Amino acid sequence: MSDYRNMWKSLGINMEAHDRLLEILPPTYLDVYLSQENRPQNMDYFDFVVNEIHGLRIQELQEHKKKGGKVIGAFCVFVPEEIIRAAGGICIGLCSGVEMGAAEAERVLPKNICPLIKSFMGFKMAKVCPYFESCDIVVGETTCDGKKKAFEILNDFVPVHVMETPQMKREKDRTLWLSEVNDFKTNMENFTGQNISTESLAKSIQEVNAKRQALLRLSELRKHDPAPISGKDCLLIEQIAMYDDVPRFTEKVNSLCEELENKVAEGKGVAPKGTPRIIVTGTPMAIPNWKVPHIIESSGAVIVAEEMCTGLRYFENTVSEASNIDEMLENIAARYLGVNCAVFTPNPGRLERLVQLAKDYRADGIIHCSLSFCDPYAIEANRVELAMKEAGIPLLKIETDYSQEDTGQLKTRVEAFLEMIK
């Protein structure tokens, strides 16, 4: 990686804490990713992106800002990237996924709170995330009480716009969500100083749809046995999707798919045919939270799908194209409200989707992973367990956080589960 220290200093980054963070990532990445066998050659690009995670992409964001552009940060798949791009902004996912700045975060948050919330507040308050420090505004949502209240505090450090996410999917909830999407369009226009036109929104919808279609193409290839790519690599790609340049990312994923299609035709896979196939579901996994997927795949299984926000929920639906802005916004609202987040009650769509995924991907079992204190997913695990029992699909429920202290215990449980389903 080039020397970006002057850029980081100009952003006000806490250099000492940032250096400690960068010291952690390379050995972790080497152990989790670069030691894999039979990796596709086109993973080189995604390795490069991770290597430059706080470098080249941050430099691109600064160049965008110098030209008068805005950078908009987000944490959730409910934030409509199409609208941000149509207003000339760049949408980026923000830092979390690792224990960072806990002492700083606990100055304003309770000790026992979801690790994701504590992590993003810690990154901001400790000033170790160049994405946060590049943001002109953060877009929050009301997908859980913890995030909802944390965004009030985050607003003390960076401007925050909160979208009210409905908790049900009745007609009046759809009306509420459409009004939130319309308000968001107006807010983005005012914030960026750039009106959204029919042409700019149509182009943005096409570009983001193309990204999602590339990810869906990759996902479809994982239905083959042997699977042509590991679940860890796919999770990494899905994580990078949230902050990389959209057209470039789309091109690279499609190039990877071409290589994988050849592997499928030759009967080559990342693991032998007949390797136990697992679907992971639950709380999203932000970079560098690779702990559970690494445990699963180093225990002799291959992950074939992620029913998570860092997974299928992010890309399995696209926005229908239209000829006028009002209809486009209606289609955007409809697409996002189709996400099966655990915030919804009741949430039968997620249970039905899991059963269908198990059939489509010929999964031998499902591992439900929720973060500690993540109430929506931890509680909905009960409904998932009942639905999988009724469908005859083996399920393992685990709860963890961003520490490595429970790695041995989790590995023992995963190995026992895999032994049971063989």
The backbone outline, from C-alpha atoms, is globular
Q: How much of the sequence is in beta strands?
A: 5-15%
Task: Determine Rg (CA atoms, Å).
Answer: 21 Å
Structural class: alpha/beta
The H-and-E topology, N to C, reads as HHHHEHEHHHEHEHHHHEHEHHHEHEH
Total strand segments: 8
End-to-end C-alpha gap: 43 Å
Oligomer: single chain
Biggest sheet details: 4 strands, parallel
Biggest sheet strand order reads 2-1-3-4
- Classify the helix fraction into a percent range: 40-55%
The overall pLDDT average reads 96
SS element count, helices:
19
| Poorly predicted runs of 5 or more residues | none
Task: From the structure above, extract its key features.
422 residues, alpha/beta, four-stranded parallel sheet, 19 helices, 54% helix, 10% strand, globular
Structural features, described:
With 422 residues, the chain is an alpha/beta fold. It starts with a helix and ends with a helix. Helix content is 54%, strand content 10%. It contains 19 helices and 8 strands. α14 (291-298) packs across α19. The strands form 2 sheets. It has a 4-stranded parallel sheet, sandwiched between helices. The radius of gyration is 21 Å and the shape is globular. The mean pLDDT is 96.
